[in-house]
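Quick one:
INPUT:
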């Protein structure tokens, strides 16, 4: 059985040098600079050497969502998700044109998901009220265009689930899930997929590892969050989509499965999640 892996969450659209006028405090871009600003195409080619044959390029604001669409239109094996991260909620509410421009992106044929979107109370870079308003804006957009969602929820599930339950027919994935078994159960009951990344290769929390072992084979997907969350034993280097292979190998051993077996069902789940054709 051949191995084919899918990275359901990466930010390779931000690997190019910033243009004049762009935010020189962009942390993601600075991380990519440590690799010498590889192009998205170069990152995809390198990932293919490690049997990563597809990836979702995820936006966190208007500009990065526009960039994700450009990558998906130019680089084979990539797809775009447009999102407004909860950290960016207030900024997008303050600029009158942002939401209208963002909403227009959802009609692009390269857009296969909405997100990452959600609530983040760990940092609370935007007020809770702004986060909830931007989350609902994106839930409405997903329903209008019949798109799945990529959810970023951190220390905020008590507020997230009631908002989620206001809507009917939502589908999507809990990105970078490391929360409780209780919230895992709630996500699975709502038909959501669960995104697992390099965190599990270096966590010291036995309950997190036990939780990952319990996720049904038809609900788990792999991700990197590149350039963040580099898996062990490569901590201290920049995470790339190719590193999804490292996480897959770790999880296969943890779950007592073969790598081809785990690769097969996680990749099948990724295509089902985003309604992609193989």
């Amino acid at each position: 059985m051949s191995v084919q892996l899918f990275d359901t969450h990466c930010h390779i659209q931000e690997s190019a040098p910033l243009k004049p006028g762009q935010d020189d405090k962009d942390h993601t871009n600075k991380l990519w600079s440590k690799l010498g600003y590889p192009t998205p195409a170069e990152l995809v080619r390198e990932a293919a050497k490690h049997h990563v044959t597809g990836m979702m390029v995820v936006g966190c604001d208007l500009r990065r969502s526009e960039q994700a669409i450009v990558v998906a239109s130019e680089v084979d094996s990539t797809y775009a998700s447009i999102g407004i991260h909860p950290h960016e909620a207030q900024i997008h509410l303050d600029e009158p044109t942002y939401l209208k421009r963002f909403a227009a992106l959802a009609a692009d044929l390269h857009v296969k998901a909405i997100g990452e979107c959600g609530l983040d109370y760990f940092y609370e870079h935007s007020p809770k009220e702004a986060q909830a308003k931007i989350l609902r804006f994106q839930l409405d957009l997903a329903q209008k265009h019949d798109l799945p969602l990529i959810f970023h929820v951190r220390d905020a599930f008590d507020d997230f689930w009631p908002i989620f339950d206001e809507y009917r027919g939502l589908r999507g994935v809990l990105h970078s899930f490391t929360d409780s078994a209780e919230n895992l159960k709630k996500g699975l009951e709502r038909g959501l997929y669960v995104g697992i990344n390099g965190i599990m290769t270096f966590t010291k929390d036995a309950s997190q590892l036990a939780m990952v072992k319990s996720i049904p084979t038809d609900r788990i997907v792999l991700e990197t969050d590149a350039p963040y969350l580099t898996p062990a034993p490569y901590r201290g280097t920049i995470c790339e989509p190719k590193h999804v292979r490292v996480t897959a190998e770790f999880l296969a051993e943890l779950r007592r499965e073969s790598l081809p077996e785990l690769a097969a069902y996680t990749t099948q789940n990724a295509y089902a999640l985003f309604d992609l054709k193989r």
